[in-house]
Amino acid sequence: MSSNSYRFYEFGPFRIDASERVLFRGNDLVPLTPKAFDLLLVLVRSEGHVVTKDDLMKSVWPDSFVEEANLSHNVYKLREALGESGNGEKFIQTLPRRGYRFIPKVVQVPSDTETLIVQEHSRAHIVIEEDDDGVEKLSTAAPATDSGSRFLKPAVIALVLVALIGAAVAAIYYRRTPASSPAVAAAPVRSIAVLPFKPLVAGERDESLELGMADTLISRLSAISGLKVSPFSAVRRYTKLEDEVSVAGSELNVDAVLDGSIQKAGDRVRVSVRLVRVNGGQVIWAEQFDERLTDIFSVEDSIARRVGNQIAPRLNGEEQAKLTKSRPANTDAYLAYLKGRYFFRRFNPADNLKAGQFFNEAVAKDPNYAVAYSGLCDYYAVAAINNWQPALEAFPKARAAAQKALSLDDSLAEVHTTMGAISMFYDLDWSAAEREFKRAIELNPNYPESYEVYSYLLSCTGRLDEGIEMAKRGLEVDPLSVALSDDVAGAYYWAHRFDEAIAQSKKSIDLDSNHAAAYLFIGESYELKGNYSEAIAAYQKSISLSERTTNLLGFLGHAYALSGRRNDALKIVAELTNMSHRTFVSPYDLALVYTGLGDNEKAIEQLNRAYTERAGWIVSLKIEPIFDPLRSDPRFIDLEKRMNFP
Question: Is the pTM here over 0.90, yes or no?
Answer without folding.
Answer: no
